[in-house]
Amino acid sequence: MNEWDGYKQIEHVGVCGRKERTGETLQLNLVSWYDRQPVYDLRRHSHDGKPMKGMTLTKSELLCLGDLIDMLRSE
Fold first, then answer.
1. How many domains, the chain?
2. How do residues 5-22 score in pLDDT, each as one tens digit?
3. Taking CA atoms, which of 13, 36, 38, 47 is between 20 and 30 Å from 75?
């Protein structure tokens, strides 16, 4: 588990991409902010693993996003 300013990574789901020049990754993780209910977190991480800009989603929001992505795939 990683901790950073109230950010606790509970589960690493996966990496969606990597910037070759900077080493940054776009990761999806299950996290808890300040010991609150866990949420899904889609966020860039620096080459040394520190979280950068991103967004958090509830499980229902993540599933809705998945449905929208599936709709785009079928176009």
1. 1
2. 788 899 999 999 999 999
3. 13
